[in-house]
Design a protein that fits this description.
Length: 92
């Protein structure tokens, strides 16, 4: 099982539409660890860690998001760290 840790910055209409809570629920469903938070610039930032296939499936979901979201683009960056569980973090 290949592990992957990715930092994602999601741009578009992704705040005020339940995006963080929906990403949190999807991460739990897929067994992905890490965290998600809103940023003051209007983006959502997440670190996703776990099985590479599960992280890829979560990123595919993130490109659409919940029904009210409009995702313009996602910036990805390889990241590091070890995580247990998934958490909602405060806005940065």
């Amino acid at each position: 099982m290949a592990e992957r840790v990715t930092r994602a910055r999601i741009h578009g209409r992704v705040q005020g539409v339940g995006y963080r809570a929906a990403l949190y629920a999807q991460a739990l469903r897929l067994g992905v660890c890490g965290w998600v938070r809103n940023r003051r610039d209007g983006t959502v930032e997440a670190v996703l860690a776990g099985d590479a296939d599960a992280v890829q499936r979560l990123l595919a979901w993130a490109a659409q998001g919940p029904p009210a979201a409009v995702v313009d683009r996602i910036e990805l960056q390889d990241s590091g760290g070890q995580f247990t569980g998934f958490e909602l973090r405060p806005t940065l």
